[in-house]
């Protein structure tokens, strides 16, 4: 950058960082900010947010009072004012290991659990640890965009395999095999899936694990929506297939307890055959953890009680609410000709719908659709490109029921107003 000072040109040595610029435009937050800037201030109706991933502001999705108590008790105890250790305090690691083992055919060791500041920090740490020069990683398309951003930022090459809408959003395993080479380090799967709303079957997860084993790559299983399965398929953790291939499991209390702001997540290394250990990767992971900030100690201190005192009834009633929202969402989508939902949502809080632009006039693409929708109807829906699929939309259905119903009536009006008139 050059600036003229007193007639002479002064040079400054710092400026935009191209690496960051290239990786940052992918964020969901940025798309949402763009959409909010299109809102019409003259519209007196409340804005309906069906683009976000955080239902915690809605009273229907408030967290369990026992979790709030656990946090208050932890702070009052004065036992958690100290620094944490880099993989988390022992009682938190133990509580998470036991929590995850409840549904498994074996016990996870607390030594394999590393506490992080939300699932996102686990992604950051893992991607940083994997990013060696020349390496590449296989990411699903569509996907949760933080993987792409962090990989580009760490200069880890990204190769995309498709999730197949015609096969219930299963992984295109042939594509995975075709994409991988001897510099491929890992494959990411998100189950239950943000953004697609599907849940992988046990058989499919096993095939993913077998394919990864054949290719000699790590499986990263993002299970931040663990147990958000309300369709026919039960949630099965990739942890069940760690005998086949080394697995790193990612999770958090963010989504299941509706407290993403508490920033508590985990990264669990499942390595029964010591492949991660013997290759040196386990040590690298610890080194990266050592240079990263820790989750707040009092939140970690509260974890045993958050997990121990939340009744099953809390989870089942929230799951039922999300299922009800998903049901309404799917029915309403079917009433709108210009969008189609290839798979009825059966997990997470999202669904993907395809835009049929040929039925619309004066709408050029998904982003245009969403910007005009924000402006004309004060309704926020995420353009598919934000998660890697142009001319699709990602709809969040975990909101208050009246908002959801109102949102769909606005969407219907919008679609009608912009549909091509019959000659
Ligand atoms: C929300 C989300 C995350 C991030 O979780 P935090 O605990 O809020 O950091 C990671 N992966 C997916 C798929 C998510 O939807």
Summarize the structure.
39% of the residues lie in helices and 17% in strands.
Structure characterization notes:
The chain is an alpha/beta fold and 423 residues long. It folds into two domains: 18-61 and 313-418, Aspartate Aminotransferase, domain 1 (Alpha-Beta Complex), CATH 3.90.1150.10; 65-309, Type I PLP-dependent aspartate aminotransferase-like (Major domain) (Aspartate Aminotransferase, domain 2), CATH 3.40.640.10. It is built from 14 helices and 15 strands. The protein has an eight-stranded mixed beta sheet. 47% of the residues are buried. The mean pLDDT is 95.
Count of helical stretches: 14
Mean pLDDT: 95
Number of individual domains: 2
Bound molecules: pyridoxal-5'-phosphate
Compressed to H and E, one letter per element, the order equals EEHHEHHEHEHEEHEHEEEHHHHEEHEEH
Which descriptor suits the 3D outline? Answer: globular
User: What's the story with the biggest beta sheet?
Assistant: 8 strands, mixed
Using only C-alpha atoms, the radius of gyration works out to 23 Å
**Could you name the ranges where pLDDT drops below 50 across 5 or more consecutive residues?**
none
| CATH homologous superfamily (4th level) name of the largest domain | Type I PLP-dependent aspartate aminotransferase-like (Major domain)
CATH architecture of the largest domain: 3-Layer(aba) Sandwich
Tell me the CATH topology of the largest domain.
Aspartate Aminotransferase, domain 2
Structural class: alpha/beta
Number of DSSP strand runs: 15
| Quaternary structure type | single chain
Task: Provide the helix percentage.
Answer: 25-40%
C-alpha termini separation: 57 Å
Order of strands side by side in the largest beta sheet? 4-11-10-9-8-5-6-7
- Strand-residue proportion: 15-25%
GO cellular component, one term: cytosol
Family: Belongs to the class-I pyridoxal-phosphate-dependent aminotransferase family.
Cofactor: pyridoxal 5'-phosphate
Protein name: Aminotransferase class I/classII large domain-containing protein
